[in-house]
Amino acid sequence: MLVSESQSVSATRKISKYQKPCKQFVLYYHDNLLLDPDDVANSTSAKVTMTKDQSFHSPEAATAQGFYFYNMKTDYSAWFACTLVFNSSEYKGTLNIMGADLMPEKTRDLSVVGGTGDFFMARGIATFTTDAVEGIKYFRLKMDIKLYECY
Fold first, then answer.
1. Where does this one sit in the cell (predicted)?
2. What is 21-149's CATH topology?
3. How far apart are CA 111 and CA 113, in angstroms?
4. By percentage, how much of the chain surpasses pLDDT 70?
5. Which one of 113, 128, 134, 148 is most buried, counting C-beta atoms within 10 A?
6. Which of 44, 21, 53 is nearest to 145 (CA)?
């Protein structure tokens, strides 16, 4: 396949245009698991909240609606898809995140694939970092969200 010089220059301009995010913020994803000690295989999340700091008891910045499922029982990697629902004085609307969460990696980039309200048709990257793990009952992710398309 041949690419003309004008196509190559156009692609370069598009990439350089989005080097700086148009919106960036950090949220902490708190997942508190409801477990029956005799039935670990069927555990479910009791509540998933998003805060602006690491404290589980901080005011909610958003709630998460969606799912993640583990790819294997021996290796902790998951496929993640959720909608963050914002209803605060700072933001209103939703933000959709999805992709492979390769949990053994220190940081993982998942795609921001859209949104509504203040995040109408947003596109970008959510970088996950595991921030805390308390056995199989609780974990916290730091989500560094960078949006490159904001309307």
1. Secreted, Extracellular space, Apoplast
2. AOC barrel-like (2.40.480)
3. 6
4. 77
5. 128
6. 21
Task: For residue 73, give Cα distances in angstroms to 52, 97, 99.
Answer: 32, 24, 19
> Could you give the C-alpha distances from 11 to 5, 20, 37, 104, in angstroms and in order?
10, 16, 54, 33
d(CA 112, CA 62) in angstroms, rounded, equals: 15
Amino acid at 37: P
Nearest to 141 by CA among 73, 69, 80: 80
pLDDT at residue 10 is higher than 90: no
* Amino acid letter, residue 144: D
Question: For residue 72, what are the CA distances in angstroms to 25, 79, 135, 145?
Answer: 31, 11, 18, 27
Structure tokens that stand for 45 in this block = 């999340």
CB 66 within 8 A of CB 78: no
pTM as predicted: 0.78
